[in-house]
Amino acid sequence: xxxxxxxxxxxxxxxxxxxxxxxxxxxxxxxxxxxxxxxxxxxxxxxxxxxxxxxxxxxxxxxxxxxxxxxxxxxxxxxxxxxxxxxxxxxxxxxxxxxxxxxxxxxxxxxxxx
Amino acid sequence: xxxxxxxxxxxxxxxxxxxxxxxxxxxxxxxxxxxxxxxxxxxxxxxxxxxxxxxxxxxxxxxxxxxxxxxxxxxxxxxxxxxxxxxxxxxxxxxxxxxxxxxxxxxxxxxxx
Lengths: 114, 113
Hints:
The structure holds two protein chains of two kinds. Chain A is mainly β. Chain A has strands at about 5, 10-15, 20-25, 30-40, 40-50, 55, 65-70, 75-80, 85-95, 105, 110-114. Chain A is globular and about 35 Å long. Chain B has strands spanning about 5, 10-15, 20, 25, 30-40, 45-50, 55-60, 60-65, 75, 85-95, 100-105, 105-110. In chain B, strands 2, 5, 6, 10, 11 and 12 form a six-stranded mixed β-sheet that branches. Chain B has a four-stranded antiparallel β-sheet with strand order 3-9-8-7, with no helix packed on it. Chain B is globular. By secondary structure, chain B is mostly beta strands. The interface of A and B includes residues 90, 100 and 102 of A.
């Protein structure tokens, strides 16, 4: 158990819908990362937050947005869903943003868009 | 750009066999290198890391050496166990840059008794 929790574990929804994925980082970790894992694209970085502020952005679609709240939990919002958005979404956290630090991953949320 | 290339899987070995999973990288700056492991139905766990040239990361019998001259970080284990069956990801972050992990495509390892 990494200490990072993600809810829900599974999500099944229809095209055009909007969903929210939630992540609670390890106690004391200030930085949160979101990654998408799909069969065709592999593991791709989406976005990073540090202490409530956006710190880095990756290949995140405009239909997707995220935020980190004062209690440091984070939410990833996916809207106007398409079939191609079906994937496993991971949240990770680290104590401080550093290229040396380990990122601790949650168990993921599996999103299926029908 | 920055990228990681891993050997294509899947890899199937018998218990106690020697394991090598090749990983090479391309980086615009000085990278830190990582191996993560993903067991079925779980998130990724850090297996080992190295942050400068010639460093060797090791954990649970696995080893990898940061080779700057060949831009490689190959994963090795002398004697694999059934419990090592998982997907292994090589990854990098850029020192002084964004802390995002850039992953290889992953190599699925199956170890048979």
